[in-house]
Amino acid sequence: MYAFTLERPSTLADATRLAAAGAKPLAGGQTMLASMKLRLSNPEQIADLSGIQELVGICREGNAFVIGAMTRHIDVANHAELKAALPALADLAANIGDRQVRAMGTLGGSVANNDPAACYPSAVLALGATIHTTSRKIAADDFFQGMFATALEEGELITAISFPIPKRASYMKFKQPASRFAMVGVFIAQFDAGVRVAVTGAANGVFRHSGLEAALSKSFTPEAAAAVKIDASELNSDIHATAVYRANLISVQTQRGVTKALA
């Protein structure tokens, strides 16, 4: 690991000032610290956000939950009101990584990193969430821009994410057994205006599947999902699974997710 300077801001204003000056924000550190140990990343200055209490917490505002960027996965998983009104999101958080990862990892860190196999981006995209930052609000459809790429500008920090509450929702994750990342994860959310389906782990970034959305908006049934052909041409093929296998997983996980949501 290379030498670096560690800052511990106690307010969002201090963190924003440090980020604007070039400091690399540290949330849960589940990706950043590992990459530093492998000398794949070499930040000269790090701003540890863990002491900023204004970035922590879960509250309901009307028909949405607003979750602070530094809220840990374990706190999302165990939040009673969230589990009652939006159980799919709590269930997603409960199955990220292992206990150590859930105790340290944060919502904001996961979304800002935008790992192509991470779970949270699929929930953000399928629920049509809004990402609150230190300078603006960004719609989920405008936020994710490919592998590890987002609409965040240099020095811009996520402060919270607002998740609308759907009529029904579910998240189905086929885990890579060693890493527990999603080989394929499918988040389904049904609203009065229609159904949104987001897929993670299958390609070079999280994406919505328009064919599944159209079919399920007409008929929210496993049979409707099964009738949709999943194109494998742009999906990942690697040592874990071929593109064709991942395409089949998208279909199967969507069918299971609809059944789970209806239950």
Keywords:
263 residues; alpha+beta; Uridine Diphospho-n-acetylenolpyruvylglucosamine Reductase, domain 2; Enolase-like, domain 1; four-stranded antiparallel sheet; 12 helices
Radius of gyration: 18 Å
The CATH class assignment of the domain at 168-262 is: Alpha Beta
State the end-to-end distance: 49 Å
Reported for the largest beta sheet, the result is: 5 strands, antiparallel
Determine the number of helices (DSSP H or I, runs of at least 4 residues).
12
Give the overall form.
globular
Poorly predicted runs of 5 or more residues: none
DSSP strand count: 12
- CATH fold-type name of the domain at 168-262: Enolase-like, domain 1
Could you say which structural class the secondary elements and strand pairing correspond to? alpha+beta
User: If strands are numbered along the chain, what order do they take across the biggest sheet?
Assistant: 4-5-8-6-7
Kindly state the mean pLDDT as a whole number?
96
Summarize this, please?
The chain has 263 residues and is α+β, with helices and mostly antiparallel strands. The chain is built from twelve helices and twelve strands.
